[in-house]
């Protein structure tokens, strides 16, 4: 038996944990699904009883079932092909074909949706009343685009029958799940082609149905995975690797290897390896480190020249029944600042994903994080990424993205520099203006003080009316202060005149701009006239050319040549 692929759904609650293995026996491929523990056996039995009749069951046991491998393309494959070819019409046709297939199932119309107790237990109670909706009588909620394959004979076959329920479920909830699963796994490819809202519109899901479907999905995910299950929903391929699992290399597959070292020296003996098929879809790989490990981590994402897209890298402790978000030690987030590229690995960050190209079979990156765990602590590294062989168009897109990112960073720096220069100029102007205003304020305070003195002097003159000499002296000083006041008023008048001149210049500038606009309009009219004249000239030249060609054709015609003697005789008569 040759194992081609294995996945484990260990992030689910125990009663839903199963494995899927694709293997070859005598060159014939098979698919086997097996319960990972006794409590998951009813889940396997439910899967067997609800399997699509077109899925050939080869063998069943109490805890497992083996199917014939079906060759063909899923709706997801076909939709992604249309995306890559930018064929929107084909994409829409495929969505409509999918809807026709979905609505062939047994559907009932409901004036008001009254959920059963089983529905409420699994999906929660609707927060709003649903009226005039359609429901599946028996519901497979996993009718996602990648769970329906079209075989060589054109048959539509449902691959996965894990989640089939014997109670009514709204059709739009199933359509919502199809959209969400497609976008979660193929966000990078789809985001350049179609939005989630646009796909929901094609599927006929309105805002109210979308809001309720999200609530149903969160409750369902919590029932299957436990609390804070958002990281695991729709992850078809979560591959867990630990020291006890030997991943055997398979021809035509890529290799992902994690090195762990306490002293910075990395070796094969201190590493974990997994081999996986190339795919554009994002997958999560989880590596469990040795107990009590302390040191650094190096990641070799590929052993060949590959294009890789990384969404997130997370390191967290494993403690049973504790939310992993509370145990997170490291996360690359969207800036990927904790990743150090090495040995020919090129990368750029588009704000959501880290795009990487390996130039050789030993390209790698190091996490800028030192792990310190206790002797009995398990540490897990989770990598959400995709990898595929480099093709010419992928290389062009990568170089374009790399160049655009560099140009964007340069432009941002240039804009910051220009903005700083502009702000500095404004600041200098503000400082100069403040200095002028401060000076004027000082002059005004001086004038005010002198005015106060003048008022006091006048009071003194009145009070000292009996002493003329003293009054004359005080009056002289008051006259001097009055002269200063007049000078200040003259200065103020000059400032007013300067302000009027500035306003006049602004008005003149506005007039010049208006005249300039008129001249531009006149120029545009003249250019249009010139264009019309040129067109008329071309038309005349074309007519002239046609007439000339007609005349030439007459002169060169046999009739013209045969009637030449007649024309000569007529000309002789005319001359005679």
Give the tags.
alpha+beta, 576 residues, extended, single chain
Specify the structural class.
alpha+beta
Distance between the termini: 117 Å
Radius of gyration: 42 Å
**Helix coverage percent of residues?**
40-55%
Shape by Cα distribution:
extended
Count of discrete structural domains = 4
Compute the number of helices: 11
Strand content: 15-25%
Q: Strand count, sense and closure of the main sheet?
A: 7 strands, mixed
Extract low-pLDDT stretches.
230-237, 240-251
* Strand segment count: 26
Question: How would you state the average pLDDT, rounded?
Answer: 80
Characterise this structure:
The chain has 576 residues and is an alpha+beta fold. The protein has four domains: 1-69; 97-225, no CATH class; 237-390, no CATH class; 407-517. The protein contains eleven helices and 26 strands. It has helices at residues 41-49, 75-84, 88-102, 117-123, 171-190, 196-203, 207-225, 392-463, 468-555, 558-562, 564-575; strands at residues 2-8, 18-25, 28-35, 57-61, 64-68, 73-74, 107-112, 131-136, 139-140, 148-150, 156-158, 164-165, 169-170, 238-241, 254-261, 271-276, 279-288, 294-300, 306-318, 328-331, 339-342, 345-349, 354-358, 364-367, 371-372, 378-389. Strands 14, 17, 19, 20, 22, 23 and 26 form a seven-stranded mixed β-sheet that branches. A hairpin with a 2-residue loop joins β4 (57-61) and β5. Residues 230-237 and 240-251 have low confidence and may be disordered.
């Amino acid at each position: 038996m040759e194992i081609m692929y294995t996945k484990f759904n260990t992030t689910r609650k125990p009663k839903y944990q199963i494995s899927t293995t694709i293997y070859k026996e005598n060159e014939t491929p098979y698919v086997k699904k097996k319960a990972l523990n006794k409590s998951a056996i009813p889940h396997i039995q439910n899967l067997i009883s609800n399997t699509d009749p077109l899925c050939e069951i080869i063998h069943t046991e109490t805890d497992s079932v083996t199917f014939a491998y079906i060759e063909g393309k899923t709706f997801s494959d076909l939709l992604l092909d249309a995306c890559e070819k930018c064929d929107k019409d084909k994409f829409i046709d495929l969505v409509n074909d999918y809807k026709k297939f979905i609505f062939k199932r047994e559907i009932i119309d409901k004036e008001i949706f009254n959920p059963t107790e089983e529905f409420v237990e699994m999906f929660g109670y609707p927060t709003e009343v649903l009226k005039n909706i359609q429901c599946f009588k028996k519901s497979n909620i996993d009718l996602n685009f990648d769970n329906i394959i079209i075989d060589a004979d054109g048959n539509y076959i449902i691959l996965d029958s894990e989640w089939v329920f014997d109670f009514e479920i709204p059709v739009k909830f199933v359509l919502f799940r199809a959209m969400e699963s497609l976008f979660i796994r193929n966000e990078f490819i789809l985001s350049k082609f179609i939005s989630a809202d646009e796909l929901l519109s094609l599927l006929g899901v309105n805002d109210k149905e979308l809001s309720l479907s999200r609530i149903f999905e969160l409750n369902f995910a919590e029932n299957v995975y436990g609390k804070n299950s958002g990281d695991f929903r729709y992850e078809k391929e979560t591959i867990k690797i630990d020291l006890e699992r030997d991943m055997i290399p398979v021809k035509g597959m890529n290799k992902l290897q994690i090195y762990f070292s306490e002293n910075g020296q990395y070796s094969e003996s201190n590493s974990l390896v997994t081999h996986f098929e190339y795919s554009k879809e994002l997958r999560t790989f989880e590596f469990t480190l040795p107990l009590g490990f302390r040191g650094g981590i190096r990641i070799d994402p590929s052993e060949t020249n590959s294009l890789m897209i990384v969404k997130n890298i997370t390191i967290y402790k494993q403690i049973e029944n504790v939310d992993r978000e509370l145990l997170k030690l490291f996360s690359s987030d969207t800036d990927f600042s904790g990743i150090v590229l090495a040995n020919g690995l090129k990368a750029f960050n588009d704000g959501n994903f880290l795009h990487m190209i390996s130039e050789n079979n030993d390209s790698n990156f190091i996490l800028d994080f030192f792990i310190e765990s206790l002797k009995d602590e398990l540490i897990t590294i989770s990598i959400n990424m995709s990898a595929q062989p480099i093709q010419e168009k992928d290389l062009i897109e990568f170089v374009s993205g790399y160049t655009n990112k560099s140009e964007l960073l340069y432009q941002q720096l240039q804009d910051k520099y220009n903005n700083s220069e502009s702000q500095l100029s404004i600041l200098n102007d503000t400082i100069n203006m403040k200095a002028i205003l401060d000076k004027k304020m000082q002059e005004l305070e001086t004038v005010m003080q002198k005015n106060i003195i003048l008022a006091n002097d006048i009071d003194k003159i009145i009070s000292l009316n009996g002493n003329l000499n003293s009054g004359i002296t005080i009056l002289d000083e008051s006259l001097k202060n009055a002269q200063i006041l007049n000078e200040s008023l003259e200065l103020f008048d000059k400032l007013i005149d300067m302000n009027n001149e500035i306003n006049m210049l602004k008005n003149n500038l506005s007039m010049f701009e208006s005249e300039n606009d008129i001249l531009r309009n006149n120029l545009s009219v003249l250019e249009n006239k010139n264009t019309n004249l040129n067109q008329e000239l071309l038309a005349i030249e074309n007519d002239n050319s046609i007439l000339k060609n007609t005349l030439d054709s007459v002169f060169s015609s046999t009739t013209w040549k045969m009637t030449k003697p007649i024309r000569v005789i007529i000309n002789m008569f005319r001359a005679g």
